[in-house]
Amino acid sequence: MKRFIYPIQGFLTLLKKDINFVIHIVIACLVVIASFYFQIKKVEWLFVIIAIFSVLFMEVINTSVEFVVDLITKDYHELAKHAKDTAAFAVLLASIMSLVIGVVIFLPYVLALF
Predict the structure, then answer these.
(1) Residues 56, 7: contact at Cβ < 8 Å?
(2) Which residue of 1, 63, 84, 108 has the smallest Cβ count within 10 Å?
(3) pLDDT, tens digit, for every residue of 1-52?
């Protein structure tokens, strides 16, 4: 049980520090609800799950990079900026990929409503 304490503390830290992580969780919940509503296929579920978790993984890594950089220096440093910016870009890439997956999967279901 002790092994689960640290991940739970990490999760709680993310909820406190990173509003973007909370936003991603809310969006993920909405996507899961939409997936049940449209009764997407098993293969589509796999892509939705991969999309959701890839964004969450990248957000966790981004926040971790920010913590480490802030630990090393509070002063402005060009390399610190690059580390934070590239980690943020990883989140953006995962988000774009997830958006594309979402459009490919959900657009036909939404269009079928009309």
Answers:
(1) no
(2) 1
(3) 788 999 999 999 999 988 999 999 999 999 999 999 999 999 999 999 999 9
How many other CB atoms are there within 10 angstroms of residue 107's CB atom? Answer: 10
In 1-114 the beta strands, taken as DSSP E runs, fall at none
> Greatest CA span in the chain, whole angstroms?
55
Q: What is the pTM for the complete model shown?
A: 0.89
Contact 93, 86 (CB under 8 A): no
| Annotated catalytic residue within 44, 59, 66, 78 | 59
Tokens 């991603």, residue? Answer: 24
CA 57, chain centre distance (Å): 6
Active site residue 59: yes
8 A C-beta contact, residue 87 and residue 62: yes
